[in-house]
Amino acid sequence: MYAIPPLCLLKQQYNILIIRYKVYFSSFSNVTGVNR
User: CA torsion 18→19→24→25, rounded to 10°?
Assistant: First the structure.
C-alpha cells in the first residue's frame, strides 16, 4: 500500500480536474454570454 498515490494516478486525477474546470468555465461563460 502506498501512503502517497503513484505519480501517474495523481497526474490522471489532475488532468480530469483541469478538464472539469474548463467545461464548467466554458458553460458558465456561455450562460453569462461572455466570450473569451
Answer: 60
| Tally of CA atoms within 13 A in the half-sphere of 15 that contains its CB | 6
**The C-alpha cell of 20 is what?**
472539469
| pLDDT for 30 | 74
As a whole number, mean pLDDT of residues 1-21 equals 83
Predicted model pTM: 0.52
Q: What is the chain's length?
A: 36
Task: Provide the CB-side half-sphere exposure for 7 (13 A, CA).
Answer: 0
